[in-house]
Amino acid sequence: MKRFAQTCEQIAATTKKLAKIAIIADYFAVSTPEEAAVATIFLSGRPFPAWDEARLQVGGALLWRLLRELSGKTDQELAAAYRRWGDLGAVAEQVLPAKEGTKPASASRQEQRGGLVNALREPGSRGELSAIEVQNRFRQIAEARGTAAKAALVRELLSQANPGEAKYIIKIITGDLRIGVKESLVEEAVAKASGSTLQEVERANMLLGDIGRTLQLAASGQLSQARMRLFHPLGFMLASPVESPEEALGYFEDAWVEDKYDGIRAQAHCSISEVRIFSRTRDDITQSFPDLRDALAGFPQDAVLDGEIVAWSSLAAGPDEPGRALPFSVLQQRLGRKAVSEPLLRQVPVAYHVFDVLYANGELLIDRSLSERARILDGLLAAPRVPARTQALPSQLVLALDAVEPRSVATVVRAPVFRASSPEELERWFEAAQARGNEGLMIKNPQSRYTPGRRGKSWLKLKRELATLDVVVTAVEYGHGKRIGVLSDYTFAVWKGAELVNVGKAYSGLSDAEIAAMTRWFLEHTLEEEGFRRVVEPKIVLEVAFNNVMRSDRHTSGYALRFPRIVRLRPDKPAEEADTIERVKEIYEKQGGNGSAAGSSGETLPG
Ligand code: AMP
After folding, report:
1. CA 381 to mean position of chain CA atoms
2. Where are the alpha helices (DSSP H) in 195-282?
3. Where, residue-wise, is CATH 3.30.470.30 in the chain?
4. DSSP code for 195
5. 3-state secondary structure of 560
6. Confidence label for 317 from pLDDT (cuts 50, 70 and 90)
7. Burial class (CB in 10 A: 0-12, 13-18, 19+), 446
8. Do residues 119 and 111 make contact, with C-beta atoms less than 8 angstroms apart?
9. pTM for the model
10. Distances (CA, A) of 5 to 25, 95, 97, 422
């Protein structure tokens, strides 16, 4: 790990891309393939390969607490170091005590335990943590249940590392190395070190979702052996925003158009005997959707589908619709749950709107055009399937079971595709999508390939903005990266009678000059300093835009704005004239919220 940390320091010291690539390639050249494989994953800012669902679940607050404990510093001293050095990893390097010699304090205990731990250390450097050992510890941390168990493991790891290593261990835990390296640059280094082409490396990494495994294949000249593996999610193709129908048609003239559903993106991997559903973060979310798993069962062949899961009401159907998507706030109740109860399955039925197929008939389809994939998808969905529940049971028994306990089964819908070649046509589809309660349109080039993990101009999104809200800033935090020295993260509130209640937190939207001016103001108008955070005088009004309003127990208001963005400062507006909780409720109800409280959610929530 020491050599990995030193390499990161060298990478950070240059801004030149080619120099960074050369440093990484040199590091690979003097490492074993196993060690280099782990390093590629760490350099991509992850503890585990992309396909792997294991998560550390160690937050900034826990790391802060451990740093305070291991360094003996006060909150104020840590906060000052944080402002100066910019991230917790860099703070750790400054505040943790240097190790005497290279032998970790607890080495003798480790040695007594012997076996695996020592075998995993770098050869020839007994007592030092290897990158492989660190990943092994990460695995234990991910598997540990509960904060106390995780804290004990992180504490042990940090106390065995020297400060330079701890810096990068923490950066990997927080998911951001800040050395100017992205996974694409690591791919270039793998290509350079192995003499493969960048294209070969990119393709293998895309198929495997594992830059470490890709490096190992490259090292043995076997990149062409990389195959997509069922139940290992591929990256998702992403869309670029457009402002108007005219702009959209500037990219391609003959457009395929679908409604933009407000749910969660899901990749379904289906075999004859098993179905697993993955989220955009490549987490396995099958447990939240047992009904959808059943509805997708029984394909006569392996298939990988791409689509959006939405909350669904078949009662609210129009004359030509089988049903209608409900807003995200309804779906939210199904997310992030380990198990979904029968009543909840019935209360929040879902539909999977399938709009693409990535694998079928034993063939990876991503290089085929959208129009060809659409044809294959239509055939696949039209073919008869054997519903999961009836697979092994005689039909009388199924009928009898349903009579006792009717089971809700999710709907699988082929997302309808429309055509448009003029702005007027697009405008009409946009209005129709909105009338159906959907967010806007996805506009796709029928000639385009499926490009996993890339945001290109082959898929475009046209969305409506909801109304904006004028809110009051109640607390502020220092930002990250280049915003480290300035107060750029704002928690904001609306009025509930004479009280301000928080509804969200926003990070972006102001210019650097505005942020600098606001920082000066907030420093002078702090009511309470709490380490990272300052409670400030509630005087500053912001106008914020957002995707929608959700029920949330995260904020005192009981609501949260989803994806809030600062539109502008409103120095013209006194805080007393900011918006109220009634207005938030009104927007929530207008968007079709169902009023039920939802707890934690698996989707990104505003802070
Ligand atoms: P955004 O999250 O605003 O970047 O918009 C892109 C997201 O829209 C995708 O990741 C999907 O989750 C979602 N989406 C909704 N409907 C569609 C559709 N018909 N085709 C592709 N993506 C869709």
Report:
1. 29
2. 198-208, 211-219, 245-251
3. 238-463
4. T
5. strand
6. low
7. middle
8. no
9. 0.72
10. 15, 17, 17, 55
Q: Is the pLDDT of residue 147 over 80?
A: yes
Tokens of 284: 């396995």
Pinpoint the residues of the chain covered by CATH 1.10.3260.10: 2-219
- Give the angle subtended at the CA of 231 by the CAs of 263 and 377, to the nearest 5°: 60
Pocket of ligand 1 (CB under 6 A): 239, 258, 260-261, 265, 308, 355, 415, 442, 461
Q: How far is the CA of 260 from the centre of ligand 1 (A)?
A: 6
- Residue 432: the pLDDT is 92
Contact, 506 vs 567, CB < 8 A? no
Distance from Cα 297 to the centre of ligand 1, integer Å: 24
- 73 given a catalytic annotation: no
pLDDT at 572 over 90: no
Does pLDDT of 389 surpass 60?
no
- Number of Cβ within 10 Å of residue 129's Cβ equals 27
Task: Please report which confidence band the pLDDT of residue 599 belongs to, taking 50, 70 and 90 as the band edges.
Answer: very low
User: Among the options 260, 444, 463, 505, which is catalytic?
Assistant: 260
What are the residues whose beta carbons fall under 8 Å from the beta carbon of 242, sequence distance 6 or more? 248, 251, 443, 460, 461, 462
CATH code, residues 2-219: 1.10.3260.10
CATH of span 238-463: 3.30.470.30
* CATH class of this structure's domain 467-590: mainly beta
State both tokens at 89.
Answer: 């990893």
Look up tokens 């609210």; give the residue: 316
